[in-house]
């Protein structure tokens, strides 16, 4: 949904978004990586399963909840990408307990 | 001032008042339910949501029976509310456990449960003390520090907020009138003739029920009653939603219908201070993690404190005024558990004009020194 | 536990400015910020991005300079990526969650510099993927140098819209269309508020942006009403009264409101700001709140923009130094004078802007019952109206009835809308409907992090 301008942000970091490798500008958030990856949705709500993508990017709306490095429901717009970071959509309520 | 006449006035629109008002209106009494506004102490909004029998009424068999009775009334009330309002109350009564984190806790719990059964007499009380290994099969993910659990088949849980909305909706659906922003501080009392003022209107009725929670302490004496209740602060933590994992509620941890885990059961004497205390929150979190280590990874998305309505002996107070017949008071900290009896047993008594003899031990006169002597 | 003279929450313009002033006066300063780098939202990522020609201007010059001075100042304990999840205002105790888990800090005085958030714009379809806030797109540009793909439509109003349009044009992605919601007649009302001469420099900058955005080829439809985003699974079209167009990305904006989540959770006194149509904490001329230890500076105390925030931050720091016994009242007042003058100048144009860009009633209380207002718990405007008819007199009771405001955002996105809907339904002013009363944790913390908090040291 967004395109980078590599001529102005040459330094990049390799991450995995939904299992696919993607290089994103250094300093970007995991939510930015989700938008740059072009996913149709980065989460499905636990209430109705509706698809969502990040909305506010500034820590307010929590629509960017994603699974980051295996940890569910992280506010992706508040997490800076690091090399090798695994970012995956959050589909519905997380697993917990013995099921995890 | 304009005067309006009703068959009954209920002061307090929380779970206790709403359940009684619903019951009265269902009996055919034109009932006015007076409530405060958007911000008030409102123990109902802070309720943990257990429909709980075990650990209630040690040394007070009448309270044990009253609680068991409410757990029995609950399914009918929940079904009726769903039918009338379309609102589910999230009631599940799969039985419940109390988790003991040491052998010492387990022994003490066992003794308490045995005493409850003795006090139940012919009424009976089914329970089991279950050691670690078997308990871990009942409750997947139970931590290694858990020594064992006590279990009864009577326990369950429900959504306090859905219940509140269902009672308000059901009450107004039956023709009852709910009046918010109507804090009652005064009133006039005569036998079977009561009046209170709210938003410039004088409301009169031959019956009045005081269910104003902590407000009852001030209000009751104006109607020839006594309600020596004081606040006890409890804090609750709520996690993000997870897929369903807990098959049954425990005294301090339950999973809501939505999937959140609620962690709670702290007790503090903090006056009317609704503040939160990170030290107490930490203790709640520690106990939860010892009980179910996997809870550690869950995000807490909400937490709150609320004030329980406690009588000096921790038991409910139900009373009727001798000086002003028609005036009643109901005080308890178990608005969810006792909703069944409040709507289905207490309200009919009030409608009939007098509490039945089985309610006598709940009178506030038990705190009267001369009476006790 | 180390005790600081001043703990500052937020490293935007107000927080950085306050930290610089306080540290310069010898105070020990703790700065806690959720972001990985200083700048706040307005100067987000400025240390990396100041060289991007799309962001030339105040951001690249003033923002970069402020961040550089902040970094260079000794005596500031700056902790990025750190969330404050509880404040005990009486004890001056802050509960934190940082990159290495939970912790505590103690401070004699606490300054909330938590800034602003965008006003929610609950139009039909605003939850569809592809619909974002304008601020979100600007953050994508600042943080990742990225621009939206596909046909880009902006809808709403306010200075940020024009700034963003100009920045995107410079970045090679001018928006195709701006649907401006400023009602006809607003300009006339705004002109009557005055302040144009004193605010002429700001006005000139605004006019230049307008010109730049228009020159990029962006079409503008003005007086737009009845906005809606449409599409299955993502936004495909945007429609309004009398028009519709294809759309790949829709950016919404109706101005900003103070972030009062923490100040409300602390129970500070707040007042309804009729000009800005939002709640703001009650503050004195130094930013001191109704709680003895707590001050507020910047947009979190009322929207004034970054220049006003810089001055308000400095004033709050001077007052903190005075309270700490480092400055007598006369010295404090003397040092404050230039900041007060600059603050006045920075706020000169505000009444004009507030009147020009006042959101329409339909933005505050969406007219269609089917429109979602609580994005987390998926509660509609119609459900809120029904709860208000049942007897809910404010957003706290609506929350109890419907779960609106109980999701992870804790009502940050729906609180204002819910209150406005209650007010509309009950026929009362919004100020009477009141405001959500949030509780800790202000941001999520895991149960494990809470359980592992260090033992409290004896005070």
UniProtKB/TrEMBL annotation, chain A:
Highest taxon, organism lineage: Bacteria
Keyword presence, ATP-binding: no
Keyword Phosphoprotein: no
Keywords annotated in UniProt: Oxidoreductase
Gene Ontology MF: a single term: oxidoreductase activity
One Pfam short name: Fer2_4
Gene3D superfamilies in alphabetical order: 2Fe-2S iron-sulphur cluster binding domain, sarcosine oxidase, alpha subunit, N-terminal domain
Entries under SUPFAM superfamilies matching the protein: 2Fe-2S ferredoxin-like
UniProt-recorded name of the protein: Sarcosine oxidase subunit alpha
Species of the source: Teichococcus rhizosphaerae
TrEMBL record, chain B:
GO molecular function: oxidoreductase activity
The keyword Oxidoreductase belongs to this UniProt entry's keyword annotation: yes
Keyword annotations of the record: Oxidoreductase
Cellular component per GO, a single term: cytoplasm
Residues of the FAD dependent oxidoreductase domain: 7-347
Database matches in InterPro entries: FAD-dep_OxRdtase, FAD/NAD-bd_sf
Name this protein carries in UniProt: FAD-dependent oxidoreductase
Organism, scientific name: Teichococcus rhizosphaerae
UniProtKB/TrEMBL annotation, chain C:
Keyword entries, A-Z: Oxidoreductase
Gene Ontology molecular function: any one: oxidoreductase activity
Ranges where the BFD-like [2Fe-2S]-binding domain occurs: 372-424
Superkingdom classification of source: Bacteria
Entries under SUPFAM superfamilies matching the protein: FAD/NAD(P)-binding domain
Signal peptide limits: none
Residue stretches making up the FAD/NAD(P)-binding domain: 4-313
Protein name: FAD/NAD(P)-binding oxidoreductase
Annotated organism of origin: Teichococcus rhizosphaerae
